[in-house]
Amino acid sequence: MASDDTLPLEEFLPYRLNRLAESVSREFAKTYRDRHGLTRPEWRTFATLGQYGSMTATAIGVHSAMHKTKVSRAVSALEERKWLTRKPDPADRRTEHLSLTKAGLAAYREMVPLAKSFEKELLGKLGAKEREALLNGLQSLQSVLTVELSED
Amino acid sequence: MASDDTLPLEEFLPYRLNRLAESVSREFAKTYRDRHGLTRPEWRTFATLGQYGSMTATAIGVHSAMHKTKVSRAVSALEERKWLTRKPDPADRRTEHLSLTKAGLAAYREMVPLAKSFEKELLGKLGAKEREALLNGLQSLQSVLTVELSED
DNA sequence: TTTCAACGGTTACGAATGTAACGAACAGGT
DNA sequence: ACCTGTTCGTTACATTCGTAACCGTTGAAA
C-alpha cells in the first residue's frame, strides 16, 4: 500500500506515458532523420499527407495535434524539398490543398515499410497477450481523451 | 486488412503514444502551473526530490530522462524560489546533494494528493478491465525499452 | 608530482517552439 | 455596399531547448 505523502513517479501515469513516448519516438526518429534529415514536425505532416492524399494545413494540425505554426513551417520545408505542392481552393482563396509530389510519394512509399517494420519489431518483443493488453489499453485511454484533445 | 502502401497513423505506436502523453501531460500541467507557476522540468525535478529526499543533479537527470542542462536550470529556478537547497559533498567537491527546503516540502505535500486524484480521476473513466490492460501494457513496453532509455 | 582523461555542473549560442499579432479572405447581418 | 466577427495561414518576437564548449575537480597512470 503506497504511503500517502509520496508520489511514486515510476507509477504515475503522465510520467510513464512521457517516458515511453519520448523513448519510442526518439528511436523511430532515427529512421527518417538518418535517411532524409526530416524533423519530427516534417515527418508528421509528410506522413499525414501520404496517408490522406490531400489536406489543408489546419486539417493536418488538428489531425496530428500540432500547433499551426509548426505545420506552417513544416509545409514550407517540405515544399522547398520539392516533396509537397500547394493547390489553391477554387471556392476559398484562404486555404490551400496540400499534397505530395511524385518525389514525395516515392519517399513515402519507401518509408512506409520501414515504419511498419519498426513497429512490428517493437511489438514483437512483447508476448501476444501483453501486446494485446497494450493496444487495447491505449485504445481505451485514447477514447476517453478524445474530447480534450483540442489544441488551445 | 491494411493495404501495404499506406501507414495508418492512428494505429501507429509512436504516434499514438505521443498524442496520449502530450494530452495527458498537458492536462496535468495545469495543476502545477496554475497553482505555482512551475514549468515541466521544474515540476519533474521537484517531484523527484520530493520522492527521494536527496539526489545529485545527474541522478535526477538519469532518473527522469531529462537533459542535464534542463535539470541545471530547473534546479536554479527552484533554488531561487527557496524550495531547494544544495549541500556540498564532503568527499567530492564537484557534486551537490539537492533536497527540498521546508517550504518546498510543504508545497510537495500539497501537490501529492492533487496528482493522485488527477490520476485516479483519469483512470476512473476506464473500466476495471481496461485499466488493468493499460497499466500492464505500459509495464511490458517499459520493461522492453529500459535498456534503450539512455539519454545520449 | 605531474599529466591527462573523465566527470559534475554551468553557460554561450544557435535551433526549435509557442504566443500574439497580423493580412487577406470569407460570411453574416444591416 | 458596408460593417463586424471569424477563419486560414504566415511572421515577429520572446522563451525554451539542446549541442558544444567550458571550468573546476577527481582519480589513475606514468
Automatic annotation (TrEMBL), chains A, B:
Domain HTH marR-type: 10-143
Pfam families: MarR_2
SUPFAM superfamilies hit by this protein: Winged helix' DNA-binding domain
GO molecular function per UniProt: DNA-binding transcription factor activity
GO biological process, one term: response to stress
Gene3D superfamilies from the UniProt entry: Winged helix-like DNA-binding domain superfamily/Winged helix DNA-binding domain (1.10.10.10)
Protein name: MarR family transcriptional regulator
Origin organism lineage: Bacteria, Pseudomonadati, Pseudomonadota, Alphaproteobacteria, Hyphomicrobiales
